[in-house]
Amino acid sequence: MSSTVEFKENTVIVVFGASGDLAKKKTFPALFGLFREGFLSSSTRIIGYARSKLTDEELKTRIKPNFKTPTEKSKAQVDEFLKMVTYISGPYDTPEGYQKLNSTIEEYDAASKVKESHRLFYLALPPSVFTTVAANLKQYVHPGDKGLARIIIEKPFGHDLASAQALQKELAPLWSEDELYRIDHYLGKEMVKNLVPFRFANNFLSACWNNNFIKSIQISFKEPFGTEGRGGYFDSIGIIRDVMQNHLFQVLTLVMMERPVSFDAEAVRDEKVRLLKSIKPFDKDNVLVGQYTRSEDGSKPGYLDDETVKPDSKCVTFACLTLQVDNERWQGVPVILRAGKALNEGKVEIRIQFRENSNGMFKDINRNELVIRIQPDEAMYMKMNTKVPGISNSIAVTELDLSYKSRYSDFYIPEAYESLIRDCLRGDHSNFVRDDELDISWGLFTPLLNYLEGPDAPTPQPYAYGSRGPAGLTDYLKRNGYVFQNRNIYQWPVTTPDVLEQSKI
């Protein structure tokens, strides 16, 4: 049975790790969001599974406060949704819980007179138990030729190239690539899903989306908080594994890939892989790494102040990397990936900076810059040069602005997990990570990680909690092709003063 079939009526969704934070804060609220908006049938059965000894009502009490209910109607829908939810307690490594789960699903299928069983398994679990649960599900709960099953696993998909390949080697005999959905929630974000139509449905972009017109690309991830007591966990991960190898690389592929031949999921993922294969190895001598210290006013602790962190830890909490794509379209265009914790603001954005006018009457004006803000407050705006109103011939920088919260205030914009779970239910792999994507991205990052975590690792530059990052950041960006504009001639919109803050580099 083809896994491209869309699940509609009488689907069973099993959430493993149902008692954990991820399920409570993301998975169950996403399922409720789909139900609230009419994308999940009331005939769906949702089963939480975990080792914790909970009753159905105790699970419902845990998850209910995280549901979004913007209207009186949606508040009334909560109880209707919770009627679809039950709970099974069982171990992850022995058969009895899985056998009970399978019996429960079969009873439901029989009562619903289901001809072909539709089962979705969501593993909101740590990677250490992925293969254990996947193996037991295949042996005891997969419907075989009597139906269709899909399985969602969460990142991280390995720690480096060797561990990622080992994980895939263990999963591949159990679950086919058609059945397996590796979820990276950034691929479900509205502005990330917009990149493909934005690029390929607008002809005015096609002529200039190349190295003849674009000078540099910057993809930034900024968090305003530190590890907040989770430093011991973060110490073995670091910012590069946490967001660069996965989230930012996925965004990069959609910004820079060639046009897919169709909307088919494999056509899209083929182009992402082709782009990844064109990326040159990282230059370890062109990397800026940092680690946050106590805030300047002393109110926020530094990374090493966390008692769970080793006193001499060189864990990277800030990184700036520059890569080169060796193909005809992008050769010579530096691509800067930048991510950090405990910074001055929370923001994820893409900055496409165009080349300057090299001659003529406007040769000294600011460069055009396209900014795509992924979060918060989704927006796209193009910085452009225009004449100052009135009798003056002076040039000012203004913007063509698409701010989602003003333009689409009445639209339902799904949360990332809502969007991706719906894609999985529809059998659409477009926004999920394929195995060869993992191999190539880990192959690029592993040598760099080995260097940064090895005996000759550089000491991360200190930066104060709440700052922009290490002192060398501005020079690094300039050295790698990003030109800071003349802010004195920017005409900021009077009606949206927050744009100034959101547009800071």
TrEMBL record:
Q: Where is the Glucose-6-phosphate dehydrogenase C-terminal domain?
A: 197-484
Name recorded for this polypeptide? Glucose-6-phosphate 1-dehydrogenase
Source domain of life: Eukaryota
Secreted keyword on record: no
Q: In what residue span(s) does the Glucose-6-phosphate dehydrogenase NAD-binding domain sit? A: 14-194
Q: SUPFAM superfamilies annotated for this entry?
A: Glyceraldehyde-3-phosphate dehydrogenase-like, C-terminal domain, NAD(P)-binding Rossmann-fold domains
Q: Name one GO biological process term.
A: response to hydrogen peroxide
What this protein is reported to do is described as: Catalyzes the rate-limiting step of the oxidative pentose-phosphate pathway, which represents a route for the dissimilation of carbohydrates besides glycolysis. The main function of this enzyme is to provide reducing power (NADPH) and pentose phosphates for fatty acid and nucleic acid synthesis.
Q: Identify the keywords attached in UniProt to this record, alphabetized.
A: Carbohydrate metabolism, Glucose metabolism, NADP, Oxidoreductase
Q: Name one GO molecular function term.
A: NADP binding
Q: In which family does this protein belong, per the annotation?
A: Belongs to the glucose-6-phosphate dehydrogenase family.
Could you tell me which InterPro entries the record lists for this protein? G6P_DH, G6P_DH_AS, G6P_DH_C, G6P_DH_NAD-bd, NAD(P)-bd_dom_sf
Tell me what reaction this enzyme catalyses.
D-glucose 6-phosphate + NADP(+) = 6-phospho-D-glucono-1,5-lactone + NADPH + H(+)
Example GO CC term: the record gives: cytosol
The EC number on file is: 1.1.1.49
Entries under HAMAP family matching the protein = G6PD
Q: Which organism is it from?
A: Ogataea parapolymorpha (strain ATCC 26012 / BCRC 20466 / JCM 22074 / NRRL Y-7560 / DL-1) (Yeast)
Question: What PROSITE patterns does the record tag this protein with?
Answer: G6P_DEHYDROGENASE
Q: In which pathway does it act?
A: Carbohydrate degradation; pentose phosphate pathway; D-ribulose 5-phosphate from D-glucose 6-phosphate (oxidative stage): step 1/3
